Structure formats: structure tokens, C-alpha cells
Amino acid sequence: MRIADILQDKGSKIITVQAKAPLDEAIAMLDRERIGAVPVVNEKQQVVGVLSERDLVSVLAEYRDRALHANVGALMSRRVYVCTLDDEVEEALAWMVAYRVRHLPVVEGDRLCGLVSIGDLVKHMVGKATSQPGVLQESVAAS
User: Domain holding 121: CATH number?
Assistant: First the structure.
């Protein structure tokens, strides 16, 4: 299965934030939308960073309440790993494990077209395993 299939099942809503947005507004958005990360985009919808819960914990631990007065661009992760619509789910999951990230922006060319989380991909893998008779039993028996 491809990442495009995951996005189709997930829906088309893409939540983003601009680098110049105040951090407290981005935190409120993460809470309101019940999401763990948000792609940071420029005016052309190109990914310039990601703001994740892990980023927030790190900056709050270091800067305490002073961090809340910064903008998203000052605190976001600038090293962004992405995948494409044509990438296989298993491949994207392997990248997440290798790069220790929980979210991958999905790009088409240089434009953002979605975001997948490790939860989205694991949900697919579990569904795949349980739909194949004996696979889950073999996994349990092997452990």
C-alpha cells in the first residue's frame, strides 16, 4: 500500500502553521486539533520545518516561559524528513524508525499535500496483519 492510500483513508484536511506565527497560538492549535506535530510552511505551501511535541518539550525545558514569547520559526525542527504519495507504507515506517521521527510530511514535487503519523502507518500495518489469517497468530507464537 502507498502513502496516497493512507491519506485517502485519513481524509484531506491539512493543518499547517507559518514560521512567523506566535508559539502560543501554535500550541493552542495542536491542542485544539488533537495532533502531535504540524508542518511549518511558507506562502507557497512548501515545508520549511516541523513543530512537534518533542520540540516543545525541549524548548520549554531549556527556556521555560521565555519560549512562549518566540515565534514558531525560531523553535521548529529545520531538518525535515518527507515522503511522497508513491512511497510504500513499509518504507515510510522504516524511515520513521531510522530517523526517530513520528511524523512525515507528504510532498508532491515541493508542495505539501499531507502528513502521516507513525500511528497512521501502524494502524494500517495492524489492519493488514489481522486481515490475513494466521499472521497475527504466527507473530504471537514467534515471540
Answer: 3.10.580.10
